Amino acid sequence: MSDRYANFAHSGAGRLLVKRLGLPDPPRLRRHSAGDPVLAGPALIGGSGRLVEPIHKVIEGLPKAEGGDRNAALIFDATAVVDTAGLRALYDFFHPVIRSLTPSGRVVVLGSPPELCANAREATAQRALEGFVRSVGKEVGRGSTAQLLYVAPGAEDAIESTLRFLLSGRSAYVSGQVVHIGPASVDVPEDWEQPLVGKTAIVTGAARGIGAAIAEVLTRDGAHVVCLDVPAAGEDLSRVANELKGTALQLDLTVEDAPRRLADFIATRHVHADVFVHNAGITRDKTLGRMDEQQWQSVLDVNLSSQERINDVLLAENLLGGNGRIVSVSSVSGIAGNRGQTNYATSKAGVIGLVKANAAAVAARGLTLNGVAPGFIETKMTAAMPMFVREAGRRMNSMSQGGLPVDVAETIAWLANPASGGVSGNVIRVCGQSLLGA
């Protein structure tokens, strides 16, 4: 469903009215298209910490748009900030240049994880970076974003895939996020445009909407995609798989033998999978007092328990290849809660718990486990919402608009990248920096 308000706001008369009345002004977001450079213009780098050299090395190797005298990116290494007095360096760097950032510009601050700092004063100063970045994300406007990367000592050479994602149009609807990067073996792809060549990816709930977009983007990045969904969605599932030259697998993940059937399929057809995306999810919205037992149980089974059961068999039988990736789809509802969604919010908060509780054990096997938490994404489901609820969802974020399924898919593709080995245990919100929740 098209966003009629945004279309009007982009028109000549609409721009005048929006400005005069102080109405929400949805910017045109810079999203990735084939052949686009990572950087839309020059990048200004500041700071004096341990990441300055690695940052320069990455930036020098990135494709950049030519021309323009305004900065498309402002990048600051804050790892040298060891006490609260040192936070003045943020003001000194950003104050003179922040207002000249191009539309759809990028702000990235890199720091040290507070829990790994040498003392309490350094940890305090590093934690302060989160408030700074989230506020900048709400100030820059015009489709620009701001992010914080906490880079652990020893992970200096593991930042490239994350910088490439956050500086590019692929991260159009991701802002105000804190990403933790740890030491890891980094498998740099031969071609950054197709990092998944030779890989097999499995996407659940792939017949439509966000799942179909995930399958499409992973295919674009070179993967052979197994599109999985329930038998009732078989026609749509076959269409998606055929269009992508992938494989369709009809399977209800809640049936008792589903993990066994899936494991046998992977072992027989592909030996192992390289990327597994838990996207399947349902809603059965009712206030708690009006919700029946089946509405509660079905949502928990599909959205959460099935992920646990599948992960158990994937790990127990070594069905993920070396440097494998698991990505679980949560929701902003799992962070902020939502009226009429106690079942859904419980399941999606549980997905966040699953990621946090299991990431270390998964990392010990050379794998990564991350989550994404979409906010208001334009799908058939959100199009069916009451008008005022739908409009509130669209406007209550820093972008003043809903996201697209491809925004979730691009984020998952970054987490699936072989070079993202240092990114594990993260839950990334794809919400345009929603005003709800954290």
Automatic annotation (TrEMBL):
Residues 199-375 form the Ketoreductase domain. GO terms for molecular function: 3-oxoacyl-[acyl-carrier-protein] reductase (NADPH) activity. Pfam families: adh_short_C2 (PF13561). Keywords: Oxidoreductase. It comes from the Bacteria. Its EC number is 1.1.1.100. SUPFAM superfamilies: NAD(P)-binding Rossmann-fold domains. Belongs to the short-chain dehydrogenases/reductases (SDR) family. This is 3-oxoacyl-ACP reductase. It comes from Dactylosporangium fulvum.
